[in-house]
Fold this sequence. Notes:
Layout: H1 4-18, H2 22-31, H3 37-52, H4 54-64, H5 74-89, H6 95-108, H7 115-127, H8 138-145, H9 150-160, H10 162-171, E1 178-182, H11 189-195, E2 201-203, E3 210-213, H12 222-225, E4 229-231, H13 234-243, E5 250-253, H14 260-268, E6 274-279, H15 282-295, E7 300-304, E8 317-323, H16 349-361, E9 364-374, H17 383-392, E10 396-398, E11 413-416, H18 418-421, E12 426-433
Parallel strand pairs: 5-6, 5-8, 6-7, 8-9
Antiparallel strand pairs: 1-3, 1-4, 2-3, 9-12, 10-12, 11-12
Amino acid sequence: MKNPRFLAAQLLNKTFGSGSYSNIQLSHGLDSADMNERDKRLCSVIYYGVIERKITLDHIIGGLSSRPLEKLDMTVLNILRCGIYQLLYMDSIPDNAAVSESVSLAKKMGKTSASGMINAVLRNFIRNGKTFPVPMDILNSSSILYSAPVWLVDSLCGDYGLECMTNLLSDALENSPVTVRMNNTVCSEEEFLVALGDIKAVKDEKIPYCYDLSEGVPTASEAFKKGYFHVQDRASQLCCMAVSPDANDLVLDICAAPGGKTFTMAEMMGGKGTIYAFDLHEKRVKLIFDGAKRLGLENIKAMSGDASVYNPDLPKFSKILCDVPCSGIGAIRRKPEIKYKNPDDFAGLPDIQYAIAENALNYLEVGGELIYSTCTLRKEENDMVIDRLLENHPELEPVDILPQMGELFGSYKASIFPKHFGSDGFFISKVRKAR
């Protein structure tokens, strides 16, 4: 049976080495591991915990190690990260166990020569009362406390202020809720709740058919197998409410995969009308097709297509959703590795986003509405893109978003933070083709 700490360190080597998504990496690792459920949970907690807290952990290790971090072997560094994480954040693990298991792990991973150093660093951390110094200035102290790069702290503060920055980055270190959208086209609330079995569901008071689920594996439930729900964050459900499609609409979801918003809109339409759902890649189109089939939604036409290139064969649409590719900063509580990307990687995104939104206008009928959305909170990718679209296209007019949902939506654009609805960070904007 595989050691959970061994697998966690192995996966961290891969994640930090290749930059692959943590959820995919962990899923593949656990699927192939001979490990009981308790050990899988331990591996998951350590793996995700180290990714979430990497900057904090490295700051601590840097203050205790005689060697600079950049000169430490990657495996040794990840063993130290796992050890410090257990000492600082996992009260269920005794200090001595965290140290001895880390030393043992070094030997199992072929790093015996580093076992003495690992032991010394971890024991010195304990002797220091498991405390560490933090700089006085707000950028660097926030970077260490919330394990976010300085550029991200600075960007969020500059765009939204200290309170919103703190809200997003502190929330990203907490457990994410499992939020779902009940499929009202195939079941009643009673049928949905019964089919969940032992999984408890708490209904949202403001968002129709939205529920938070308790611990368990929702996708293994009878409710999932029967197509009674799909997993979807609150912010994405609010985005679909902003589109507000009905049975008389012809809807285009121009960047649809994996299909969550397509499914919600199809359900809002009562399974009637038609939604065209596009993605660039055939494999991702299959995700939409398979999801629609499980949910029993027959008003979805899923197909591949380039969102930035005009297709004259498509009809005109009354509602268009442009949920464009983005930096994903709003979703860091689910994919914490996004925090550590080089900001230069995002430099070309606004032009790509604008090109998709502008191309989408070709498909919008007069009087039709376009919703632009992202799961990021960078104004370069949000406000600036939609305002550029309005400036260059006088036929467009701004439309207030969901005024019934409160002050946050009293405009044609809204930046959603976790403090508002307990959701991921998200941006929504709405315009209409007036002529």
